[in-house]
Amino acid sequence: MEFKEVNQLPIDVEKAIEKRVSTRSFKARSLSDEDKNNLMDFNKTLTNPFGIDVKVQYISKDTGAKNVQLGTYGTIRTT
Asked: Which of 10, 26, 35, 60 is paired with 41 by a 20 to 30 Å CA distance?
């Protein structure tokens, strides 16, 4: 794999960071089986430039997962 050398990004990175907004919203329901299967099938088509295996696991709000830590900018612990 070859990477293109870049000496300057086409954007002002500092301004982009200052303007960045992270917004999340959640509905109090689980995904439908069809939505879950579509997401998991789509995940199987993805590759990454580092050539490492990535494990994706679906955790349902209904069935939960004991002793699982979800990674975000911080950590979410299930209770």
From this structure: 26
pTM of the model: 0.45
The dihedral built from the CA positions of residue 23, 39, 28 and 76, taken in this order, carries a sign that is: negative
DSSP state of 70: E
User: What is the C-alpha to C-alpha distance for residues 73 and 22, in angstroms, rounded to an integer?
Assistant: 11
Torsion angle of the four alpha carbons 11, 16, 17, 21, in this order, in degrees rounded to the nearest 10: -150
Residue 14 tokens read as 């500092």
Core vs surface per residue 22-35: b (16+ CB within 10 A) or e: eeeeeeeeeeeeee
Query: Domain map of the chain by residue range?
Result: 30-77
Those residues with Cβ within 8 angstroms of residue 49's Cβ, 6 or more apart along the chain or in another chain: 1
